Each structure stands twice: as structure tokens, then as C-alpha cells.
Amino acid sequence: MKPLVIAGRQFKSRLFVGTGKYSSPESLAASLDESGTEVVTVALRRVDLSGSDPTLDAIDFDKYLVVPNTSGAKDAEEAVRLARLARAASGLDWLKLEVTPDPVYLLPDPYETLKAAETLVKEGFTVLPYIHADPVLCKRLEDVGCAAVMPLAAPIGSARGIRTEEFLNIIIDQSNVPVVVDAGLGMPSHAAKAIEIGADAVLVNTAIAAAKDSVLMAKAFKLAVEAAEAALMSGPVEENTQASASSPLTGFLE
Amino acid sequence: MNLNINGQIKEFSEEIITLEDLLLNLNIKKLDRVAVEINKEIIELSVFDQTAVCSNDCIEIVSFVGGG
Questions:
Q1: Beta strand B41-43 with B2-5: parallel, antiparallel or unpaired?
Q2: Which one, A108, A153, A182, A222, has the greatest CB density within 10 A?
Q3: Is B46 on the interface with A (CB under 8 A)?
Q4: Contacts of B42 in chain A (CB under 8 A)
């Protein structure tokens, strides 16, 4: 397996973790720690003038690469505005670009995402776009200079697992930038599957955050991703339609 | 002086001259990783203390929250 390198930066963990929906800042901090992740995502919102959000205190900006998203953006213009604000606040160029005008399925708008990506890459951002599992769009995003692509497995927070496998296979086959499967992974087996089919990394939020014991689920996802990685490096056997005996075929009793 | 901050009209004393004064008054620390737009223009952190706020300015103050 190739090491995971995005925009020249190498990561040991192939599990990226979102920071939304945790029951408490303590649960978030402990889950991030347990997951072994090196990359976490955050959102950008208006400051609550009546008091600060304690969530942020749970995220160690020195320990993790914190990648702001543009959630809430409904078109390219809004995404670019949020991206610039995020950069001003974080001091970092990394950005998870998401443009999701549809409030029911939160599916990303391909045209607006591509438009925003083009602008943001020119402005020096390291752009990781959240998109549908569309191989053509992935190539277009790669062509305009995105550092990775983040195709969805299923709608955000749906926990439905990998529903886009055929198209993820094509994306993985064609992509010259890392492929991070994002959204819809509900169980550790889904994350393992993504790595087994050749994804470079996965991003998980709801499955960990909304589990009753987030820390334990963070551990489960970590183990699953590591298991899949080890399996790929072990040189797994090819699928076969016929049986191949595991026990010797000689020395039977007469 | 009235300022529109994050969509709310708020009244401030005339002693608030710079953006830095305003954030102090709102109990927001620069270390909180905030970003500020005044009338849709982003103000860099390094010039908060040199940026004047004027009556009727539309100010957005944003920061990070948990997200996926």
C-alpha cells in the first residue's frame, strides 16, 4: 500500500474524524484520541455572543490537522466566502469544500463545487472536495488542482454503508490524487470495506459521535481501518468461484 | 453607536473605536480563532487594533464549531 500523502504531507492514520454531534467536549476529545486520527474536520459558524462554544477547546490544534469545512454553503460564492473566513480563523490553507444546497439528502452540487474548487485552488487553498461518487467529476476536480477527492458512500449521517461501490471502484482506479471516502459509513466494516477496495482514507463523523459510547466506537473504527490496511499489505488471496481445499487431499483412510 | 453584529443590532458606547476594542467588549479573545468580516470584507487578525468600527457597520464574527 502506498503511504497516504496529501499535498506533500504524510499521514499514518487513514481514519479522518469529523467533530460534530458529540454528546460533550470530553467525549469528543477522548474519541479523537482513541481513534488515532491525525486529521479532523470542523465547521465555521457565527460566534454565540452570549458565550463561547466549549467544543473548540476539546480539539488540540497542535496535535491534529484541523480542516475546516464549508458546510452551510449553497453555492460557490458562499463556499468561497466561508473558505476565506476559515483560513483567516485557522491560519491554514486546508479546506474540506462542501456545497450542499439540498437540505433533505445533503447531496453536493457538482457544478458549484467545481466552480468553487477552481477559485480556491488559485487562491492557494489545499482543497478536498466532498462530492458524489462521480468519476468524471473527480477527474475534473483533479484537473483544477484539488489535493484529494472525497466521494460519498451514502448520504451524510445515513449510516447506510458503501452504496456507491461500482463508482468508487472507477474513481479509485482513475485517480491520481488520494481518494477519501466520506459520508454514510455507519459501521467499522464499512470503513474496512472502503480501504479494502483501495480508498486511501475514510472520514467518519456521525457513526462515532452519535454512538452511545463514542470512545469505544472510535476504537472500533481505528481497528477496522488498521485491519483492512494490514490485510491489503499481507497479499490477500484472489477470489475464486470454485472451492480450494484447506485440508490435505492425500492420506485419507481406506 | 449601533452595530449589526451577527445579524443583531447592538448599541455600543463611543469609546469603542477599533475592532480590538469591540472584541474585548464582547469578551471574545483573538486566541479563540475567530475571523471577522466588516461589511463583507475580511479583516486580518494582525490589524484588528488598527481597524476602526463605525456606526451601522455590518460585522460578522465567526469561529469553529464541531462539524463533519
A1: unpaired
A2: A182
A3: no
A4: 84-85, 88
Q: Please choose, from the candidates A224, A120, A219, A214, the residue with its C-alpha nearest in 3D space to the C-alpha of residue A162.
A: A224
> How far apart are the C-alpha atoms of A17 and A206, rounded to whole Å?
9
The residue whose grid cell reads 470530553 is: A26
| Domain ranges, ordered by start, for chain B | 2-62
Q: What are the tens digits of pLDDT across the range B27-45? A: 887 667 899 999 999 999 8
A24-36 burial, b at 16+ Cβ within 10 Å, e below that, comes to: ebebbbbbbebbb
| Residue whose entry in the numeric block shows the C-alpha cell 502506498 | A2
According to CATH, the superfamily of the domain at B2-62 is Beta-grasp domain (3.10.20.30)
Q: Does B65 touch chain A (CB under 8 A)?
A: yes
Kindly tell me the burial class for residue B35, based on how many C-beta atoms sit within 10 Å of its own C-beta (0-12, 13-18, 19 or more).
buried
- For B10, the grid coordinates are 447592538
State ipTM.
Answer: 0.91
CATH architecture for the domain at A10-233: Alpha-Beta Barrel (3.20)
